[in-house]
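Board notes (copied after class):
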Amino acid sequence: MSESVFSQIRKAWTLPVIVAALGYLVDIFDLVLFSMLRVQSLQALGLHGDEILSAGENILTVQMFGFLLGGILWGVLGDKIGRKTILFGSIALYSVANIANAFVHDVTTYAVIRFFAGLGLAGELGAAVTLVSEILPTQLRGYGTMLVATVGLLGAVLAGVLAHTFPWRIMYIIGGVLGMALLVTRARLLEPGIFTRIKSQAVRRGDFLSLFTSRDRFSRYVKGILIGVPIWYAVGILIVFAPEMARHLGVRGEVSAIDAVMWCYLGVAFGDMVSGTLSQVIGSRRKAVMIFLSMLAAMVVIYFLLRGIPAWLFYVESFILGFATGYWAVFITIAAEQFGTNLRATVATTTPNFVRGSVALITPAFKVLRQHLSIEAAALVIGAVVIALAWWSIATIAETHDRDLDFIEPI
């Protein structure tokens, strides 16, 4: 990496980027809590064996429906009211929900509260990417969103370290308290000038349905979503259900969901740093994503080929798999750059949450395929489909690396 790249990264490390990055760190901390605490929390509620897998799938699906609805809610509000506003509202909601999760005593209540946690978590990343993209100059935009994602994804590592020390109820309280503490850091944030200029204009803002009334807008929107689905397939299926996958693959030794998620997200953080920097250096977001999609396809195959490996090697594999999915920030930046200021928050917020929410489709499909195929074959079929669709999308979407974002989407 050249000195000029380091210099640009330092310039991008501004107050809005720092605040957005810390907010996303807490967002990821709270997001992965259920994935990490699934087994021990459900055991504490009296579930055993296959009941834990089934209930875990159902709660995860409910949480992802919260992401879907929250993505629309916060995205529309971000374009109508302001980017800063939803950064306050979303963190308050998911912080309260996580504290409430510490006091559940049955699966139904657990699922309901995870729905509201998903609803709140849905607003964080899209608003952060939109705000950073609009505040930073074009040549620093990619570095800014890369820093937000890289720092934020380390929240999973922090959660993994603490989860080995504290009981699952205390972990939910810690997540909620961290979120509440971060609220005060957002008081000094200002709305981007690009957004404040259009607030006084007679422009339709945050019109979610307009994304479906034009073939061009709909195409850009759907492609933006499909590019990111393989990331959540890898995390939501191969990593979240790592203990069950490891048993079917004959992994020697016990595989912990906490450690699998932690090592995967550490890989994602490094991957985001590399992919974000790569997209800036080569001047192409599309090429950077293509390189990482190729790595991801290879790692999915390797994941199922390596049988009978020791648990420590499975964690190494989880780290590399996470690294290959580390184009999260680039993919969201691509989606945000595709649309004008009057729709940008709507798109940037709904896109990653529709990707996360794709688990609500992937998980039931996984359950259905498991009735006819082995668990490995079912996961491979789903992986092949989502990666192929992502390849088609990134190959046909417009390059936006140097695009000036000061424009309005004609509706």
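Comment from the instructor: The mean pLDDT is 89. The chain has 18 helices and no strands.
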